[in-house]
């Protein structure tokens, strides 16, 4: 599914917040990735985030 830039920002931001509060990562964490925002972006690119946008 193609997301607008606003939907993408909201999904990644929500997932980064979850990770910052201790949620387990949904993918194997790559070497050198330590901040929640980077990890959320990687999860988004691998389509691993279970957040759905209803239009």
Radius of gyration: 11 Å
Number of helices: 2
Q: Would you tell me the overall average pLDDT?
A: 95
Number of strands: 0
The total domain count is 1
**What is the element string, with H for helices and E for strands?**
HH
Residues in β-strands, percent:
under 5%
Shape assignment: globular
Tell me the CATH architecture.
Alpha-Beta Complex
Give me the secondary-structure topology.
Blueprint: H1 5-20, H2 36-45
Helix pairs in contact: 1-2
What is the structure about, briefly put?
The chain has helices at residues 5-20, 36-45.
Structure, described:
Helix 1 (5-20) crosses helix 2. The chain is an all-alpha fold and 55 residues long. It is globular and about 35 Å long. The termini are close together. The chain has helices spanning 5-20, 36-45. Helix content is 47%, strand content 0%. The protein has two helices and no strands. The chain has a single domain, classed as Eukaryotic RPB6 RNA polymerase subunit.
């Amino acid at each position: 599914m193609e997301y607008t830039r606003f939907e993408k920002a909201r999904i990644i931001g929500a997932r980064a917040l979850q990770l910052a509060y201790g949620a387990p990562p949904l993918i194997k964490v790559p070497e050198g990735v330590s901040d929640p925002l980077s990890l959320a972006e990687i999860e988004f690119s691998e389509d691993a985030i279970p957040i759905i946008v209803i239009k």
